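Quality-control log, excerpt.
Job 1 of 2 completed; input and output follow.
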Amino acid sequence: MKLITAIIQEDKLDEVREALTAAEIGRITVTRVDGHGRQEGTEIYRGQVVIPNLIPKVEIKIGVNETFVDITVDTILKAARHGNGKVGDGKIFITPLEECIRIRTGERGGEAI
């Protein structure tokens, strides 16, 4: 099992979510986060100019079985990229997921995902 964490631009959330649903990946967690990487200059957020100390982003977390890792990553890459790609499109992190437990049933491992 793997935990896939993607940090993407806010305007790409709907596209990524729809693409994941089309790829039959329906269980995701979305969190609003602030951060910055290589972005420079200014951004416009809610009508105000913001210097990119911390820029609003979206973090998506998805627990998947090994067979869905490549499908999930490829789907996010295609849907989150602006055109041919631009600074600030985001990052994807893949980390081992030691255990998953469904609280309702007590199922563990891949069945709980």
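Job 2 of 2 completed; input and output follow.
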Amino acid sequence: MKSKPHIAVIGAGAFGGWTALHLLERGARVTLLDSWGPGNSRASSGGETRVMRGAYGPDQPYTEMAARALKLWAKYERRWKRQFLHRCGVLWMASGGDDVFERGSLKALRAAKIKFQELSAAQMKRHWPQINFDGIQWAIHEPECGYLDARASCQAVVEAFVAAGGKYRQAAVLSDELESAPLRSLTVSDGSRLKADHYVFACGPWLGKLFPQAIGNLVQPTKQDIFFFGTPSGDDRFSDAHLPVWGDHLGRFRYGIPGNDRRGFKIADDTRGPAFDPTNGERVINQETLKDIREYVGFRFPALKNAPLLETRVCQYEQTPDGHFIIGRHPAMENVWLVGGGSGHGFKHGPAVGEMMAELILKDHQPEAIFQLARFQP
């Protein structure tokens, strides 16, 4: 009988944790490592919440992936008897002059069988009078989508992985020899060496530093400021019971998650920020960004004009130049897999990406061309 393959997964965020769990469930022996632990404050998968949506514009694979992820989130919620996906709905507000994203999303949503409604401005005003819809002509509403508990679900995945027999270690991999092919073992920060048959690196914003030759600047972390505002006393109109997750493409793209778990009304500007060091960067928000966000909140949500700022958070995106994930083998090492370039939109896809990775590795398949590193070669 063929022995179980031993697979080392480095990074316990949304991509790495789910990959480790799916590999384990398919019979592999898996060791999972993370420098600061699942959902830690430096990670792209840290923080409290992430958007779960199906709308993605035209000509992309992510709506179909989101449909699969929705099923997997529901499956594991039932299995673990815990809720991570809060289906308060997602509202995409579209202006008449610039609604390419929304118009382009409709066909993919239908094909993936993700429920949605097209709403007029009048319908929106009746549903959500607490929003000022000036400049908005119509919207897509995804009633079965919403937001995910980010940090908590990352931790739950690792807990389930360990309970099922996986080995987790909080330790860092030293990067000196990673691109000296062939890779036969890893040097770990505690002085030990880890030997496996396959190595999966799901290291988010650190992927380029670990693999300067294969990845380098193809993953560039950027600083993203997040704001939580306080709602009026006794006013629950801005809670997830009465407001959906929303995105607004009028001018700069901004999005928000309604008040949940008593943390305040979350809002962010999706514009890419400056380059950021995820290890040593100081996580202090930009005052100009705060000023802009305050003005926007007062315009779009009039009852929150002059609302107090309760909390701020600096996270990072780590997208590729074309915005698509990196999923595939290292170009010089058959037993090394790289998966990343996920934020700011990768978290929701974690269960589906993990499932995909497990199938690719254990069945020796090739990922879709849109995800392969070869797409960046001239």
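Post-run check on job 2. The longest helix spans residues 62-80.
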